[in-house]
């Protein structure tokens, strides 16, 4: 890579990293506070891989996207792998009351499992984004979505709205596609790792 190509490459990489870090930080298994840490890890990965860039093999933009996406995938995989080992798990011989390991606070256990509550700002952002999304739905679909939010289960929402469950599931699939299209995919159960 020529010296005059480095600055534009780093600018493109910085933009890509910023967007990817923001998307990861909005996933339910990361926190907003993780955004800067994720960006730093992805930046280090790009800088470590940049000397191995071969312009004859792949274009610069494709190379940067690949490195950043692979870095994000590794972060997600490592986050999920860390949740497989519960710090509260212990031999029954050493467990405290209720089978829990002595000395591991419940809050730490919940954070490790990914079941801890998100910070208030993240919850407020989620509420605002979902509210705007619901206001953009047609009236019949909005009523169905509100019934689903109120009832909490597809069968109960279908009964409350007086429609078959299949219609609720079909609406959920449509809403998932619309949510992804407007950038709410970070809140979905299985956001794409791109």
Please outline what is shown here:
The chain has 194 residues and is mainly alpha-helical. The chain has helices at residues 3-25, 35-49, 60-84, 106-113, 120-135, 139-151, 154-161, 165-181.
What would your notes on this structure say?
With 194 residues, the chain is mostly helical. The chain has 3 domains: 3-84, no CATH class; 87-117, no CATH class; 120-187, Arc Repressor Mutant, subunit A (Orthogonal Bundle). 64% of the residues lie in helices and 0% in strands. The chain has 8 helices and no strands. It has helices at residues 3-25, 35-49, 60-84, 106-113, 120-135, 139-151, 154-161, 165-181. Helix 1 packs parallel to helix 3, helix 2 (35-49) crosses helix 3 and helix 6 (139-151) packs across helix 7. The protein is elongated and about 65 Å long.
